[in-house]
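Teaching assistant here, posting this on the class forum so everyone can see the example we discussed in section. The complex has two components, and the goal was to see what a joint structure prediction looks like when all of them are supplied at once.
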Amino acid sequence: MAEKKDNVEEQVRKKNKRLAVILGLVACLFYGFFVLMHAING
Amino acid sequence: MSTLAHDDHHDHKPTGFKRWFFSTNHKDIGTLYLIFALTMFFVGGAMAMIIRAELFQPGLQFVDPQFYNSMVTVHALIMIFGAVMPAGVGLANWMIPLMIGAPDMALPRMNNMSFWILPFAFALLLSTLFMDGGAPAGGWTMYPPLVLQTGDAFPFLIFAVHFLGISSIMGAINIIATVFNMRAPGMTLMQMPLFVWTWVITSFLLIASLPVLAGGVTMLLTDKYFGTSFFDAAGGGDPVLFQHIFWFFGHPEVYILALPAFGIVSQIIPAFARKPLFGYASMVYATASIAILSFFVWAHHMFTVGLPIKGELFFMYATMLIAVPTGVKVFNWIATMWKGSMTFETPMLFSVAFVILFTIGGFSGLMLGITPVDFQYHDTYFVVAHFHYVLLTGAIFALMAAAYYWLPKWTGNMYDERLGKIHFWLSLISSNVLFFPQHFLGLAGMPRRIPDYNIQFADFNMISSIGGFAYGITQLLFVYIVIKCAMGGKKARARSWEGAKGLEWEVPSPAPFHTFETPPKLTKKVLESLY
C-alpha cells in the first residue's frame, strides 16, 4: 500500500517537473523572442 | 468532515531560523510573503506620506523636485511589485493547496526561492536611495530617454526588475503546476473555488507578460552601457517602441493585480450572503475573457504619442469591450447578495466597498479609454485618481478583506470585530477624502508627477493630503489588530464563518502544519456538501 502511494507521489513529482520546465521554456521563449526580434529590426 | 483534512500524528515542524529560511511549507512561505508585503506596504506608504506632505500646499516645502520624483517612482514600484503582488502570492500559497486538497505546492523548493529573491531585489532597489544621482526618478514606467539620465541607480533598477520578474514567473509556474497536477481526486476544474481560478488565469498572464518587460529593460540596459540604440532616435531607434513594449506588459499587469482581488471577493460575498455564488461558470469565462482582452488594449496608455487614427480606434473599442466581462462580474456579485441573508462582518464590509469603489475606478477608466477625452485627461491627476481607485480601494481593500476572512484560519483566533469595523470605516472615509478630489484636480488640468502647482489647485490638494495622512495612520490600526489576533483572542472554529464553504474550512483552526497528506476523496455527495 505504502509502495503504491510512493509510486503515485513519484509520478506526480515527475509531472510537476515536466510542466514547470515547459512553462519555464515558454517564459524564456517570450523573452528571447522579444529581444531577438528587436535586435534584428534594429 | 474535518477528518478528511489532516494528519495530526505528523504535525512536527522545524523551529527557529531554519523553519523560515529553508522553509518548503506552503503555509510558512505564505506567511513570509504576507509579512513582507505588509512591510513593503508601509515603506511605500511612508513615501506616499512624503508626496502628500509636499503637495499639502503650493510651493516647495520639504523635498527637492528630484527627490520628489524619486519618491513617486519608488512608491509605485514598491506598492505594485512589493506590496500588492506579494500579498496576492502569499494568499495563493496559503489558500490554494487548502482549497484544492493538496498537501503542499507542487514545487516547494522553488517556492522557497521565489520568496527569498524578493528581499534581495528590494534591497537592490532601496539601496539606490543612498546613491550618487539618487534613486530612479523617471516614473515606474521607465520611459527612455528620461530613464537613461538615471545615475548609478540605473543598473540596480534594471536588475531589481529582472529579479522581481524571475520571482513572479517561478511563483506562477508553481501555482499552475499545483492546480493542474495536485487537485484532490474528484475535483474537476469547474468545481474549483473561484479564488483558485483567478490565480490560475493570473499565473498565465504573469508568464506571458513579465518576459516582455524583462526584454524591454534588458534593451534599456544595452542602450545605456553597450552602445545599442533600440530606443535612441539618434541611432535609428525609437523611444515610442519602449512604450509599446512596456504597456504590452503593463496592461496585463493591471489585471495581475486585480484578478486575485476578484477571486477573493467571489469567496467572501457568498459566505456572508449565505448563498452560492451567482453564475459561477460565467465568472470563470469572464475572468478568462478579461485576461485575453488585456493583451489587446495596451496602446490606450499612449493615445497621445501620435498613433494612426485606425490604431487609436481599435484600442479604444477593445478597451470598451473589457467593460462587458467586468460588468458580468459586478452583476454576479450583486445578484449573489440579492435576497441573501446578509451580515456585515469586516471582510464583507471591505468586499462590498470593493465592488462599489472598484466600479467607480472602472468607470473613470472607461472615460480615459475614450481617445479624444484621453487627450484632455492624459498625465493629469484624473489618471492618478483612476488607478488609485482601482488599486487601493480595489486591490488593497480586497486584500484587507482576505486578511480578515482568513485570519481565524491562520492564527486559530478571531480578530477583534469592533476594531476591524473601525479600521474599515476609517479606511473607507479617508481613502475617498484622499482620492476623490484628485478627479477634480485632474479635470481642472493639474499634471501628475510635479512637486509644485498653481495656487488654484491648493484647496483640493490640502483635502487630499489630509485624507492621505488619515489613511496612513489608520493602517497602523490594522497592524495592531493582526498582532492582537495572532497573540490570542476568542478561539476560532474550523468553520470560522457560518456561511463559509470549501475544503479550507474542513481543517482545524489554526490550520495544522501538514494538511491533506492523504488526499481527500471528493465524491459528488461530498462536493455538494462542500459548495
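For the discussion questions: The two ends of chain B are 13 Å apart (CA to CA). Chain B has a mean pLDDT of 94. Think about how each of these relates to the inputs above.
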